[in-house]
Amino acid sequence: MYLQYFGFQVKPFDLLPNPQFLYLSNSHRKAISYLEYGLHEKAGFILLSGEIGSGKTTIIRDIIRRIDAHTSLALIFNTRVSSEQLIGMINDEFGLPVEGKGKVTLLRDLNDFLIDQYARKIQPIIIIDEAQNLSMENPEEIRLISNLETATHKLVQIVLVGQPELKAMISRPELAQLRQRISIACHLSPLDRGEMEKYIFHRLEVAGNGNAIDFLPGTFDIIFKYSGGTPRLINIFCDFLLLSAFAEKRKELSVEMVQEVVGDVALGVEPLPPFPVQEKVASLPAEGGLLRVLEESHECLKKIHKSLEILLVKEDHILHHLLKMAATGERTESGSDLLPSAPKDRERSEERVFKIEDIVPPEEKTAEKKRSVWSIFLGR
Asked: Which of 37, 146, 306, 326 sits in a 20 to 30 Å window from 212, CA-based?
């Protein structure tokens, strides 16, 4: 909706984990270095943890897109499954047939596949996202899979990705054997205040215009206060800030504007008090709190914005007819003929509105002129 106004090629603050927008904070750079080292050195288990929205999936996708042809990959996102289902999903990702096969057969097929890949000098990698949701039986199954090895080489590498609860789960005494097999562990921390500012400008630049909007003094402090440096929260806030600036035809953000927009987006969530924001963010429920509220409101408001866009087209369509009527003295019995006949006519309506540029002088497009035209129509 605001791409053309700000000169963007794509939305700068989309919530999709697009590795093209990856910003390397100190924490993210360290995590990528650890992951690359672990994969290159064929470490058995690698653990990547971080809070919701910290950028774990984006990093994984960045790693995946740089994997070479000598690697086969199984990427698992659904972890609320039984051990048999998990093994079946892994086999399916590797392209193995799974229908009608039991757990023992699935494990045997996987073992044969890994041996075949080793003979072909291909390194299999299993990446399990949202690993904190694994049932207690599944980590043990994963450990057993990691036991598939030769005298000198691991037949498979396993990357566990999840929220901080994953570290707590692996710390349980009954999972001591799995914990001892973890060769590399790294954690994504939130961005600090300076990194957050660079992160925002980085995304604006990647989207096509790093100078699209000015952030006046104090605005970044408010964004950091509410987001705690969590990339996903930063994206949600900044997306609404750009939308608000577009609606007001502005290209700068003031403290007052940011306070108003952030307050609206937070839907009544109280501003954070003047103590470290990380403490407040950490106290939110893992699957709820401010982040969930914001994501739900974001989807709802996107639908509202789409409807408003259609209404703007209809408004300009009506204005065009009113201008003609004011100039010719034409009258209408009802207002129904002023509207596009049906949603399917929207494209043609937009085309007609576009052609008004040749008819209506720029100065007649101001709010004051619009009001005067409505006054003529209403006989006021």
From this structure: 306
